[in-house]
Every structure is written in structure tokens, then in C-alpha cells.
Amino acid sequence: MKESGLIPDLFRTEYRKLVSVLCKHFGFDQIEVAEDIASDTFLTASQDWAQKGLPSNPVAWLYYVAKNKARNHLQRDFLFANKIAPEIQNNSSNSTEIDLSPQNINDSQLQMMFAVCDDAIPSEAQIGLSLRILCGFGIQEIADAFLTSKETINKRLFRAKEKLRERKTKIEFPGETELEGRLATVLTTIYLLFNEGYYSVSQHQTLRKELCLEAMRLCTMLVENRYTNKPQVNALLSLMCFHASRFEARQDKNGDIILYDEQDVNRWNAELISKGGYFLDRAATGDQLSRYHLEAGIAYWNTQKADTSEKWENILQYYNHLLQIEYSPIAALNRTYALAKANGKEEAIAAAEKLNLKDNHFYFMLLGELYTGIDNQKAIANFKKAYAKARTQADKLTIQRRIDNS
Amino acid sequence: MDEFILLFHFDQTMGSPSPEQLKIYMKQYHDWVGGIAAQNKFNGGTGLSTEGRVLKPGNVITDGPYAEIKETIAGFITIKAKDFDEAVNLAKNCPMLNGEGNSVEVRKITGTHAKD
User: Fold this and answer.
1) What is the pTM for the complete model shown?
2) How far apart are CA B2 and CA B115, in angstroms?
3) C-beta atoms of B27 and A317 within 8 A
4) Which residue in A has a C-alpha nearest to residue B44's C-alpha?
5) Residue B76 placed within a domain
6) Structural contact between residues A166 and A160, judged by C-beta atoms closer than 8 angstroms
7) ipTM beyond 0.90?
8) Most buried in the list A325, A326, A337, B13, measured by CB within 10 Å?
9) Closest residue in chain B to residue A342, using alpha carbons only
10) How confident is the model over A68-115, as pLDDT tens digits?
11) Has residue B116 been placed in a domain?
12) Sheet with strand B71-81: strands edge to edge
């Protein structure tokens, strides 16, 4: 591979490791120093490799250079501190040796995940920091993913880091008693990151897919670590595998969305479906049933295309349960659709009329589907209401097609 | 929005249902609670085991009230509703009411901590 392609690839995989390890060594309040040294290492690499050619082991080269830069920084820092504050001379944390062992690289990244996923900062800032520090995304890419400007993202990340500094965030694993709660925040962020890619309105298909893959990679790291390999983590990974299995099937050549019913099952990724099954099995231990277990159960049945009563009865019960744990309008609508499939349209229409979701165009889409074949006039009227409420051109197109077909 | 508790009183003199019947009852029950949750009006709640202990003054502990009374509390849920009318409206579709002798008791939760 030419170095022009190699450096961006290495940046993606190695930047996050360098930042995590360095930041753990320096302390979170020095995160900018860690980021600077990591970025600077790549700058040196691009200049040096262009002149002298590729080193035999580029990764080892990066680690070596980063270590030296860190050592220089620490020594400068140490001298400076010595002159102005001699009393901290015996501070034990002034080791200048950076630990780049595989174990420490791995732990540092996971610990960084816990540091960044903190409820004290907004979830979009958690996702932004995760993308920057743990996924090695550029500011422009993050801005593209959130459909906003680089300035907005820079400000958002800056404020988030300030906040975490104020809170004296530490790069360490939470204690056993705290783990469940902290892990819940990490999982929420990972799932939001995945959904950002899976459902975002951004037209940037490659970027969207990368967000999903990064979310799955972060979750895989949690599953591979003994300390964080919990049932709900496996359930989330399973859920994302099942969803991602339809990534290729759900858009046509022009990037337009193909609805579930019209998808070519042959384009579903069988490997991801079986991976999903594997992690769902591993999630079935312990006695807690998380929302991820229920959503993975629903996602499993959605990988079964055949319209059996068993499928819809299972999906309905998972939604019944999910809504009791965590209500969301989309779950309420999907539950009502499953109710129609399992118990019949009459019962589902009665249930739908009780939902207070009249601002939501999906609500009228659902009513349109439910009335189809029962009262076609009402069906069309509801599709038209959905059309009027739809916000994106893509949604309007889908609804128009539905009206034309009825 | 106020919080209400729905207490399910089960008439145990009617005998226990067969496993097949019980399966149908459970589905009806879950579909009903799911419908309340879909309206974002479910708060919490759970089923209760059939066995229990009853404590009485004088350090008397017995194995459940079953010999003495005809009905038992099978479970409860708490819901959000704006008034008694709405709470009763949500409660009246409870499938337990298909069983002779059963009843659903609707009570407003007043609580000791102030809440608005």
C-alpha cells in the first residue's frame, strides 16, 4: 500500500489508541496535550515517510515516536514544575515511560469510553467525543454526520471537555457497584451512534455505514473485555448485527430507501444474522431483561421474512414489554402494527385511535395501513394526512407511492 | 397527571385455570398492559406469587391468607391518568374482569412526598 492511503488508515486505527493511552498517563485534564502529541506523531510520520520511505513496521514506528514526544513533553513539564513548584518533586505520577502494551492499549480505550460517556454532558457531545477520540473521525466527518458545521462541532467538543475536566474525570474502570449504571450510559451512546448511522437523513451512505460499524466495533470491545462482558452488552451487539444485516438490501442504486416488505431477502447478510444469533444466545444469562434484549428479540424476528403468527405474536409481546420499560412513539406505533398482525386489524384500529400521536406522520401512515381493506376511503384520507405532515422529500415520495398503489 | 394503582382481586374459589387457559389469560393480560404502555400511561407494577406470609399482632406468622378469605391480590400496576374517570376507563378493559368474582380496584396514589 502506498503511504498516501496508509496514513489515513493508520490514523483511524492507531490515533484512538495513542490518545487513550497518553491521556490515561497524563490525566484527563491534559486531554488536549494527548491529542496534540498523537496528531503531531502522524504529522511527523507523513513528513518522515515521504522523505525516507515506509518504515518496516509503521505501527511500532508510530508508538516509538509518540513515546519520545510524550517523554520530551513530560521532561519539559517536569523541569518547569520543578522550577516553579519544587515541592511536587516527589510526586509519584511523574513517570516518563508510556505503557504501550496491548493490555494497556485495550484497557485505556475502554476506560476512555467510560470517561467520555458521562451523563453530565449532552448525548450528542458524548457521541461527538466518542467519534473523535475513540473512532479517530475528523471534525469535518463528525460535522457531516450531524449535518452541521465544523465550528459547531468544535465548540461542542470543547465545552464537553471543559465540563469533564471540571468534574475531574478519571481514565479508569468504574467500581463494581457503579458499573451497571455507567455501562448503561455507554450502551446508550453506542446505540445512538448506531442509530445516527442507520436512520440519519444524511445522504452520505458510506459515512452512515461507517457510523454503524464503529458502534459495533466499540460494543465488540466491551464484549471482549471480561469486566464489561455483560448480558445487556451482548444483547446490544446482537441487535446491531441483526439491523446491520439489512444494510445492503435497504437501498437501491440511487440510494433511495427500499421498504422492508420490498427488500430482496438474498441481499440480507447471512453472516451478520448468524452473528446476531450468537450474541443473543450469549445475552441469555443472568436474570435481568434489558431493553436491548427485547429489541434484539424483535430484530431477530424481523430477520425471518415469513409472515407467521408465531413471528407476530412474539414481536407483539416483546413490544408490550419494551413499552413498559421504555416508552417511545415509534415503539408504540410498531406495537400497534404487530397487534394488527397478531390479533387482527379491528383491535389494532381501536388501539391506534387511543394513541396521542397526531403530530407524527408515521401515525397516519399506520392508520392508513390498518384501514386498507377495511375502509379504503379512510385509508386514503389517512395517507393524505401523513403526506401533509411528512417533513422530508424522501418520506413524501414513499407516501405518494403508497397512495398511488391503493 | 396523577398516579393510580390498579389492584387485581382474584376470586380463588373459582378454581385454578388449566395451563392452556392460563396461557390465553396471560396473553390477554399482556396485550392489555401493552396497550396502556403504548399510550405512555404505564408506570410500573408486577404480578405476585400465589404463596405468601401474613403477619399478625402478637408475633403470629401464617402461610398466606388463603384458608380464611375467598379472594387474593393477584398483582397490581400503577398508571398515569388525569383523573378517576380516565383511570377507570383504562381499567375497564382489564381481561381479569371476564372472570366471575374477580374485581379491579382503582385507587389514587397520594403519597407522602409532595409531587406535582
Assistant:
1) 0.86
2) 9
3) yes
4) A324
5) yes
6) no
7) no
8) A337
9) B31
10) 999 888 888 777 666 655 544 444 455 668 888 988 999 999 999 999
11) no
12) B42-47, B71-81, B2-11, B103-108
